[in-house]
Amino acid sequence: MKDSLLSGDRHDDGNIAGSDAAYIANRDMSEFELIDRLAAFGVAENLKNAESVLTGIGDDAAVVSTPSGELLLTTDAIVDGVHFRSADERWYDIGWKCAVSNLSDIAAMGGIPDHALVTLGVPKGVSAETFSDFYSGMNEAFAQFGGRVVGGDVVSSPTMFINLALTGHPSQTRDGVTAWLRRDAARTGDLVCVTGPLGGSAGGLEVLLSGDTNPSGQVLVDRHFHPTPRLEIGKLLVESGVLCAMDVSDGLIGDLEKLARASNVGIAVEMADVPVPTELIFMFGTRAIDLALGGGEDYELVFTTTEAIHKTLSSALGPDIKVIGRVTEGNVPTGEVKVFDATGAVYEPVHKGWDHLDG
């Protein structure tokens, strides 16, 4: 999905030099292999004995302790030609989605958003109206879901880019204990659940690129441009005792592989139970399930939990929470996720999700 307007969880940044830069240039490793390499370097050097780092590289957001409490930190960069197309001039939409991609990371931790810094890389000839519209969309998202832009930077750049960094703070359990959701807390036997239908954003992108004006297609286009971060549900997960979650930003199967790897488990997904928008089925027929499994940028939450906690959540949220599988035993370094069709046979998705270095 290289043409995708924004690319969700594609923000695991690091200072890359020497041999690491060569790996990127030559594409000798995937995005996530590179992240692992940089994370290991950070643990060995920068993060050694860093007692203030409570959750470090590899999750949707970092969690650090400060003298006044815990702090969530996340950042996301978008680049013209990779995450959005400046020629489309949909700057309000780009601003909205730029904010939501960061807000969704805070939601994935069960947190509450606070303050944002925005860095703009500006080519020659960009109009003031461009950034006025961009900030209108971004500020509207923050006004609706929480968070405030408090500063940033502007630099000259041959290619337009935008980087947004967002802070937040953890929520609390019903017992008043400060807690946050993590990717490494899935346990064998847990249910695997999602908070809403998947594939709408990917379908919307295809409709947008095709120029189709079918009303069902336009519903999908709106899902692509105006996703909703599941902040309230994220807080409810923490309150209810859920331990493990992440947002679906790069594609369900690819994201579940990250979760499985972090938790050292396997995951079995029942394809028939994956929620798919009716408009997606109408527009794409049998292709709809592959868009749901690997499309990305839906910004729903996927989480694992016990049957007892799921029952409590179902009482609160009703049909919004869908059980799509179960956590199994596993010890596969890359994270093993198997999808089963209605006959019980293993189904191989056409596309598992987005990887910046593999495409």
Structure description:
The protein is 35% helix and 25% strand. The protein is α+β, with helices and mostly antiparallel strands. The strands form 2 sheets. Strands 1, 2, 3, 4, 5, 6 and 7 form a 7-stranded mixed β-sheet that branches. Strands 9-11-8-12-10-13-14 form a 7-stranded mixed β-sheet. The radius of gyration is 20 Å and the shape is globular. The model is unreliable at 1-27 (pLDDT under 50).
Write the layout of secondary structure elements.
Elements: H1 19-26, H2 31-44, E1 53-55, E2 62-66, E3 69-79, H3 91-108, E4 111-122, H4 128-145, E5 148-156, E6 161-172, E7 178-179, E8 191-194, H5 200-210, H6 215-225, H7 231-240, E9 244-247, H8 252-263, E10 265-270, H9 278-284, H10 288-294, E11 301-305, H11 307-317, E12 322-329, E13 336-340, E14 346-347
Parallel strand pairs: 4-5, 10-13
Antiparallel strand pairs: 1-2, 2-3, 3-6, 4-6, 6-7, 8-11, 8-12, 9-11, 10-12, 13-14
Helix pairs in contact: 3-4, 3-7, 5-6, 6-9
List keywords for this structure.
359 residues, alpha+beta, 60s Ribosomal Protein L30, Chain: A, Phosphoribosyl-aminoimidazole Synthetase, Chain A, domain 2, 2 domains, seven-stranded mixed β-sheet, disordered N terminus
What can be said about this structure in brief?
The protein is of the alpha+beta class.
Most strands sheet: 7 strands, mixed
Taken from the alpha-carbon principal axes, the silhouette is globular
- From the alpha-carbon coordinates, what is the Rg to the nearest angstrom? 20 Å
Number of domains: 2
Query: How many E-type strands?
Result: 14
CATH architectural arrangement of the largest domain: Alpha-Beta Complex
Question: CATH homologous superfamily of the largest domain?
Answer: PurM-like C-terminal domain
Mean pLDDT: 86
Secondary structural class:
alpha+beta
Q: What is the first-to-last residue Cα distance? A: 7 Å
| Series of secondary-structure elements, N-terminal to C-terminal | HHEEEHEHEEEEHHHEHEHHEHEEE
The CATH class designation of the largest domain is Alpha Beta
Beta content comes to 15-25%
Unreliable stretches: 1-27
What fold name stands as the CATH topology of the largest domain?
Phosphoribosyl-aminoimidazole Synthetase, Chain A, domain 2
H/I helix tally: 11
The share of residues in helices is 25-40%
